[in-house]
Amino acid sequence: MNKFKYITSTTGNYNLLKQYAKDNRNTATEAESVLWNRIRARQLGVKFRRQHPISDYIADFVCLQLHLVIEVDGAYHYHGDVPENDAKRTEYLNQLGYSLVRFTNEEVIADIDNVILKLNQIIKDMNTTKQTSSSTGWSEPLQPDGQSTSPSGRRGRGMKIAVLAGDGIGPEIMEQGVAVMTAVCEKFGHSVSYKEALCGAHAIDEVGDPFPEETFQTCMEADAVLFASVGDPKFDNNPNAKVRPEQGLLAMRKKLGLFANIRPVETFDCLIHKSPLKDELVRGADFICIRELTGGMYFGEKKEGTDVAYDTNYYTRYEVERILRVAYQYAMQRRKHLTVVDKANVLASSRLWRAVAQEMAPEYPEVVTDYMYVDNAAMRMIQEPTFFDVMVTENTFGDILTDEGSCITGSMGLLPSASTGEHTPVFEPIHGSWPQAKGLNIANPLAQILSVAMLFEYFNLKEEGALIRQAVNASLDQNVRTPEIQVEGGARYGTREVGQWIVDYIKKA
Q1: Residue 272: is its pLDDT beyond 60?
Q2: Is 298 a catalytic residue?
């Protein structure tokens, strides 16, 4: 702890808390994404203040993920409706769901060990309160039958999962995803409870909002969200519709602060023949697309008229830095190759991306960082998909490239994704709602099931995720497949049958 003795300023205090977060959270990336000092928060300006309820109160440190505000020597910056009175300020934060803790500069400098001890106790108390608080509408936790540890001896844990089945085939594939998660939890000694919530076209029909406030609160209460799909032809074919299902997806990303979308692109040897690319091109392709999810044209200023229309591709340095850190962390865990995709020869926003990436690259000397224009990247993904390891890009480019990447594997029904950020992470298949297949028991549930594997792996439950992947691979090898990927002459399996086969495999493993 001696390295912290020099702390005398706001910047130093910020570095202390950043180091503390690195030591006590899952990854340094997570620490970077949930902590910032008041100076950096001010730099984000009006755009930041409109996006988060805590933004009217900027103290020395705001830990969004822990819902914790930390003041050193009572330093804070307030505006808007934030009261100046200490007691009322604490009450104001409590109403937002945040806890406040104060330290003096003397405490930080003289006895950092005690400060860390206090922070640990505060977080422990917060977690205990969260675990023991009642949440109306959550299902009874699944209790393992006399098994409190995993097969490897790890103790079981409790999880609360928000279930957003959505539209089209969503409820059918979600049923299989939940069944697989339940089977894994039973096997490894975890308790799990579920709470269903409305979203998409279903939510519009019920309450007129594709992402209702009640659904948002359910997501905030959960440890993770399992999401399926949204979309309905009655909205697609109505250009005058004021509210659309997809707006709910954007609202969820924004409200939960889900700035990083993680999409693995992996080929399955037994399905190479389904790829539109030649065997020698696609075999062995295994890379991750990381897409910035809450900035760019999808969220920038817009104007739509009969003669003029525009969308603003708006990014801040902070937004670019945090997604690049996620990308570098993934690259460090894989083959240490990061490709930054932009259009820096034309777009000012892309030049910011490239400049920030070039500044950050020396922080990760083990990683080979290269830069590629988006048109070249789209071509390279077809010509040589095995070139890529980790790819990172802005929102619009990422939307297009991730869909392209999904096609080279042979079926969009095989690929999961995760969206992570400031609050509850979301795990979902990459495909859409396929309303034409609704109720026909033909939809492929594997992407939804593999999303459950990503969920377990996110919480460092590697054995659980590996077992799901093993079960999925076994189902493919034994031709237990839905019609769109079944071999000629193979037996017919539907959504329910594939899901049940995987559940049975997990129980027997």
Answers
A1: yes
A2: yes
d(CA 247, CA 165): 16
| Residue 107 pLDDT | 67
Residue 437 lies in a domain: no
Q: Is residue 205 annotated as part of the catalytic site, yes or no?
A: no
The domain tally of the chain equals 2
- Chosen domain end from 86, 104, 132: 132
The pLDDT of residue 55: 40
Q: Which of 79, 113, 132 is the last residue of a domain?
A: 132
For residues 458 and 416, the answer to whether their CB atoms sit within 8 Å is no
Catalytic residue, chosen from 311, 399, 438, 458, is: 399
Residues linked to residue 369 through DSSP beta bridges, in sequence order:
338
Give the C-alpha separation, 21 to 27, whole Å. 8
- For the stretch 193-246, pLDDT in tens is 999 999 999 999 999 999 999 999 999 999 999 999 999 888 877 777 788 888
Active-site choice (343, 364, 389, 505) = 343
Position 12 in a domain: yes
Q: Spot the catalytic one: 98, 298, 315, 330.
A: 298
- Domain assignment present for 164: no
Q: Which of 357, 429, 363, 424 is nearest to 393 (CA)?
A: 357
Q: What is the tens place of the pLDDT at every residue in 242-263?
A: 888 888 988 998 889 899 999 9
The pLDDT value given to residue 139: 66
The verdict on 127 and 268 lying in the same domain is no
Residue 37 lies in a domain: yes
Q: What is the mean pLDDT of the chain?
A: 79
Dihedral of the alpha carbons of 370, 375, 381, 384, in degrees to the nearest 10: -70
* Average pLDDT over every residue of 308-312: 92
- The answer to whether residue 279 is catalytic is no
Range of the domain at 116: 2-132
**Among 375, 477, 504, 507, which one carries the catalytic annotation?**
375
pTM over 0.85: no
| CATH code at position 380 | 3.40.718.10
Active-site annotation holds for 92: no
Average pLDDT over residues 5-30: 41
* Whether residue 242 lies in the annotated active site: no
CB neighbour list of residue 438: distance below 8 Å, 6 or more residues apart: 168, 169, 172
